[in-house]
Specification:
Blueprint: H1 3-14, H2 18-40, H3 43-59, H4 70-89, E1 98-100, E2 106-108, H5 118-137, H6 140-151, H7 156-163, H8 167-187, H9 196-200
Antiparallel strand pairs: 1-2
């Protein structure tokens, strides 16, 4: 969806056209759910957070002025809702391996290439879980900024708009977040080819 199409739908939705808002929901529901899932780490909670995000967006639609894209505004709502949830729960949820596909069924986050050996597939799955676990262990501000950049693909300016940060602050925080994530993975032996099979081969 282009920005012009999005702006037109938002305007119609603000005028009371429910079908236009539904189109906005359909266009953004997958990314919103995935963002929530990676923040809270639990499918059921992520679904609730996504639902709450769209409900809040609908109720606050009149306050949207178009200073940023609707999707960026929606990510900001989702981020704040998830942070409030995590803080209120005061716990760390388990991570999940699935995400909402474009259809109604959940799909695997990444389908392994069948050309790979079962051993390599197992190693990739294990590493994927370790990366996800390391991401969940990051401080909230680091985790959020990496998700918005690496998963949702937002620009520095869009992230700044979403989190009310200057572009320079966004860049430096992303750098520190990546460094922290690499440090966690390195400490756990998941970088520089330190998988079990490599160790067994003397690599």
């Amino acid at each position: 969806m282009t920005r012009e199409q999005e702006r037109e739908l938002v305007q119609k939705a603000q005028e009371g056209d429910s079908e236009s808002f539904e189109k906005l929901v359909i266009d953004n529901q997958t990314k919103v759910y995935n963002l929530a899932l990676r923040m809270v780490g639990n499918e059921d909670d992520a679904f609730d957070m996504a639902q709450e995000s769209f409900l809040r967006a609908y109720n606050s639609l009149s306050s949207f002025r178009g200073d940023s894209r609707f999707s960026v505004w929606l990510y900001r709502l989702t981020t704040n809702i998830c942070l409030d949830f995590l803080r209120s729960e005061s716990r760390r949820s388990h991570s999940s391996l699935t995400y909402m596909g474009e259809g109604e069924d959940d799909k695997e986050l990444e389908i392994p290439d069948e050309r790979f050996s079962p051993e390599l597939i197992a190693e990739k799955n294990e590493l994927r879980q370790e990366v996800r676990g390391a991401l969940m262990s990051l401080p909230e501000d680091y985790r959020v900024i990496l998700l918005l950049r690496e998963i949702n693909g937002l620009s520095y300016e869009e992230i700044g708009s979403c989190l009310s940060l200057e572009a320079g602050t966004v860049k430096s925080r992303i750098f520190r977040a990546r460094k922290k994530l690499c440090s966690i993975l390195s400490d756990e032996g998941n970088l520089s080819g330190s998988s079990s099979s490599n160790k067994a081969k003397g690599v």
